[in-house]
Write a structure and sequence with these properties.
There is one protein chain. The chain has 102 residues and is mainly alpha-helical. The chain contains 5 helices and no strands. The protein has a single domain, classed as Orthogonal Bundle (Non-ribosomal Peptide Synthetase Peptidyl Carrier Protein, Chain A), CATH 1.10.1200.10.
C-alpha cells in the first residue's frame, strides 16, 4: 500500500486535530466578541458571519487580516468565497496552517 501523504499529517490524531481547531475557534471567538461586544457563549460554529453576526465587508476583511497575521498564512479570495459560517473559517484556517507547516 502506497502512502504518499505527509508523515506529520498522518501522525495527527483526531484529538490533536480537534484541539487545534478548538484553539482556532477560540481565537476567532475572541475577535468576534471584541468586534461585536457580545458574550462568547452567544457564538457557535454554525453561525453565519454575515446573517447571524451581521458582519459587513469591512468587518470580514478585518477578521481575515487578523487571522492571516495570527497564523502567518494567506487566506486566498477564491477560498474565502466558500466561507459562510464561523466553522467554515475554522476549517479554512486549520487547512492552511497544516499546509503552511509542511
Amino acid at each position: 500500500m502506497d502512502d504518499t501523504g505527509d508523515p506529520r499529517e498522518r501522525n495527527l490524531t483526531e484529538t490533536d486535530i480537534a484541539k487545534k481547531k478548538d484553539m482556532i475557534l477560540d481565537d476567532i471567538i475572541k475577535f468576534l466578541v471584541k468586534e461585536l461586544d457580545i458574550s462568547p457563549t452567544e457564538i457557535n460554529p454554525d453561525m453565519s458571519i454575515e446573517e447571524d453576526l451581521t458582519f459587513d465587508s469591512l468587518q470580514i476583511y478585518e477578521l481575515v487580516v487578523d487571522l492571516e497575521e495570527a497564523y502567518d498564512i494567506r487566506l486566498p479570495d477564491d477560498m474565502l468565497d466558500s466561507v459562510v459560517t464561523v466553522g467554515d473559517f475554522v476549517d479554512l484556517v486549520y487547512t492552511l496552517t497544516v499546509e503552511h507547516e509542511q
